[in-house]
Amino acid sequence: xxxxxxxxTPTVAVIALVIALVIFGPGKLPDLGKALxxxxxxxxxxxxxxxxxxxxxxxxxxxxxxx
Length: 67
What we know:
By secondary structure, this protein is an all-alpha fold. Helix content is about 85%, strand content about 0%.
């Protein structure tokens, strides 16, 4: 059997989804997925978006100065 370190195989993904379904139930699973997706997006924006936030602040300052 081959070792697959760091790679999620389809079998492992299905087993993880079944376990999550049993633990959280079908009602909470969509909310859990939504929260997970939101957390991932916030993490990505925090790691890549620092420059963008600073640019937005500078633009707001420029707009308020010109008014």
